[in-house]
Amino acid sequence: MSTTKKPPLANTPDVYLEAISHVLIDEETLHKRIKEMGENIASDYKDKNPVLVGVLKGVVFFMADLIMATPIPLELDFMSIASYSPSARDLGYVRITKDLDICIENRHVIFVEDIIDTGLTLGYLLKLLRTRNPASLEVAVLFDKPTRRLIDIRPKYLGFHLPDLFVVGYGLDYREQFRNLPFVGVLRPKALNL
Ligand code: IMP
After folding, report:
1. Which of 50, 93, 124, 138 could disulfide-pair with 45, CB 3.0 to 4.6 Å?
2. Does the C-beta of 120 come closer than 6 Å to ligand 1?
């Protein structure tokens, strides 16, 4: 096997390269931290058969890597949401377009999120899940932008704090693009006007 490390943007199409100003977190750093998070979850939930819940679509990359780094029995489920309107979203109200398949009553639930910004969406969904009487409900989030927080949410498992910048990659999108970048990058302001 070659030991030469590829530069992080080596396999990235030119159109993406032009839009990204720099890599904020590279692939190796992401995977190392996710492995640690999975080991912590495995040790805390060893005999609890937790249900890991995610909201489509951005979380699928993190969820896949996280559960493979969590070597215990667990179950996986997803929800889908849509905003009623921009003003409703500002209040944290969202419409559930796909609900959970698993009944979470008396189950140990870990809500897995890609990124928390204001916390409004997550705050709303946690309130909803609490009404279903889980045995416990904790949050695992990969990226946290604490400077814009409006709701007090303290994730039990946290990957990285991010500055107040718009980032893409590893599931995070800008107008549905860039999710497939294997790293997290910052978009050039010019690209935000696409
Ligand atoms: P919140 O309700 O403000 O916490 O919004 C969280 C949602 O906003 C995330 O699930 C993302 O969809 C989106 N989001 C927030 N910051 C970013 C970013 O930097 N890049 C891509 N999406 C983001």
Report:
1. 50
2. yes
**Is the residue at 11 inside a domain?**
no
Summarize the confidence of residues 167-178 as an average pLDDT.
Answer: 94
Please indicate whether residue 90 is annotated as part of the active site: no
Enclosing domain of residue 154: 26-165
Q: Are 150 and 120 in contact (CB under 8 A)?
A: yes
Q: At 123, which amino acid appears?
A: G
What is the length of the chain? 194
Give the Cα separation of 48 and 51 in Å (integer). 9
The arrangement of strands across the sheet holding 108-116 comes to 94-98, 75-83, 51-55, 108-116, 136-144, 157-161
User: Can you tell me the distance from the alpha carbon of 144 to that of 175, in angstroms, rounded to the nearest whole number?
Assistant: 20
Distance in Å, CA 116 to ligand 1 centroid: 6
- Between 12 and 135, the more confident residue is 135
pLDDT of residue 94: 83
- The verdict on residue 177 lying in a domain is no
Could you tell me the CATH number of the domain that includes residue 150?
A: 3.40.50.2020
Q: Which two tokens stand for residue 122?
A: 């997550």
Does 92 score more than 70 pLDDT? no
Q: Report the C-alpha gap between 41 and 70 in whole angstroms.
A: 7
> Is residue 69 a part of any domain in this protein?
yes
Q: How far apart are CA 86 and CA 57, in angstroms?
A: 19
Q: Is the CB of 138 under 6 A from ligand 1?
A: no
Kindly tell me if the per-residue pLDDT of 192 is higher than 80.
Answer: no
